[in-house]
Amino acid sequence: xxxxxxxxxxxxxxxxxxxxxxSAKTTNTSVEQxxxxxxxxxxxxxxxxxAHFEQLPDLVKKKFPNVTLNNSQPDPTxxxxxxxxxxxxxxxxxxxxxxxxxxNDAQSMGATFDLTPLMNKYKFDLNKYDPSAMSYLRMASPxxxxxxxxxxxxxxxxxxxxxxxxxxxxxxxxxxxxxxxVIDLAKNLTRAADGVQYHGLLIDNYKIISDEYPLxxxxxxxxxxxxxxDPTWTKVLDLYKSIYDISGNYDPKITDNGTxxxxxxxxxxxxxxxxxxxxxxxxxxxNWNMVSIPTLPEFPGQRPAIxxxxxxxxxxxxxxxxxxxxxxxxxxxxxxxxxxxxDEAIPPVYNTDQFKQVFAKNWGYLPAxxxxxxxxFYGKAAIWPKNVSQYENLATxxxxxxxxxxxxxxxxxxxxxxxASDQLNxxxxxxxxxx
Length: 435
Description:
Layout: H1 9-16, E1 43-48, H2 56-61, E2 67-71, H3 82-87, E3 94-97, H4 100-108, H5 116-121, H6 131-139, E4 149-150, E5 157-161, H7 162-168, H8 179-187, E6 192-193, E7 196-197, E8 199-203, H9 207-210, H10 231-244, H11 257-262, E9 267-272, E10 288-292, E11 302-303, E12 310-313, H12 320-332, H13 334-343, H14 353-362, E13 380-381, H15 395-407, H16 413-433
Parallel strand pairs: 1-2, 1-3, 8-9, 11-13
Antiparallel strand pairs: 3-12, 4-12, 5-9, 5-10, 6-7
Helix pairs in contact: 12-13, 13-14, 15-16
C-alpha cells in the first residue's frame, strides 16, 4: 500500500503534543550475553505504530521464517496509545516512532533502553548512517545513549515537468543549483499560454529552506522564541516570499502542490519532500524528472537536515535480541530497504552506495525514463544542533501561519515574525504551566 497521507512534523505534534528534553526514564535493560539469536528462532512478537503494519509480517518472514509478527492494535477503529499499552503491561516488542518527539515520549515512560550492547553484539555499524540522521537522533539522547535506530527520512528534491520547459524553450534545471538560480528560472516559466496559467515554482513549506541551515525557533537555554531576534529567520521568510512574489506564480486556489504538478500539470517545478506525491497521477501522462533541492548560496551543496523515522526495541520485551535483529534487517538489509523504497517512497538513511542504488532501483514512483533518483542524496545533509528546547515542536504551525501571512501580503516579514514570537512564547508559557 502506498502512503497517501503527508508526513510532517505538524501531524506528530497534533497527534501527541509531545516535547523533547523532559527527563527520560530510559531503562538500562540487560540483553543475552552468551547466545546469539538464530534467524530460524521460533517466536511471536508484536509491533506498535507503523501505519501499514499489514505488510510487515510477510516481509519479516523472508528473513525470519518462524517468526509471527502481530499488530498491537489489531482493531484499527480502536486506537490504543503506547502509554496505555505500557500502563497495562502489554508493551510491544518493536515500536515504530515517527520522530524524536515520539521517541522522547517513549523514553519518558520507560519503554526504551540503551541499544548499545545489542549493537555491539550484532555488529551494527552506526558509522554507516547519514551523519545528519544521527545528529537528529542524538538531540533526543543528550546522555549519549542510542535508544532507537533511524530508518527513513524525508529527502527533498526539485521535481520538474519537462513538457512545460519544452513548451517555453527553457533549459531543464540541474543538480547543485541555488535558490536564486532556480527562482530566476521560475520567472521564465511563470506565464499564461493557451488560456492556462503556468506556475514556475511551488514549494511545500518554509522548513525546506530553514532546515538547510538548520534553524531552531526556540533557544534551548532560555526556552524563549528567537524568531524575531535571529536575523536568519528573516532571510528564510524573505526567500520563501520571493518565490511567490513572481508575478502570476501565487494562486490561493492551489491547495495541494502535488495535484497541481502531477494532475493539473500547471507547475513547472516543485520543491518537495513528499516523494509519494505523484501516486495515482503518473498515469495522467506527466513527463517529469527531478534534480537536487536548491541550496542556499552561503551553503552550496548543503541540503536540508534529515528528520528520521525510527524503530526501537521495547524495554519490557522478552525477545529483545530477536526484536533487534528484525529491526536491523528492516533498516539495513537490501530486501528491507528495497521494500520500503517502493512502499514508502522515502529514502533510507543507512548511508551506503549499495542502499542508495537499491532505493533508486525500487522506487515505485519513477517514470519509465528512469530519472535521477540519486539526486535526493546530492551533497551533504545539514547537521542538527546538539541541543533542542523541549518546546521546539510548538513552533511549526505558528511559523507556517506566519509564512502564509507574508505570502498573502497580510503582514511584512518582520511583523509576521514578531507576532509569531509572541504566539510561540505564549504557547511555551501555557505548556510550562501545564507541567
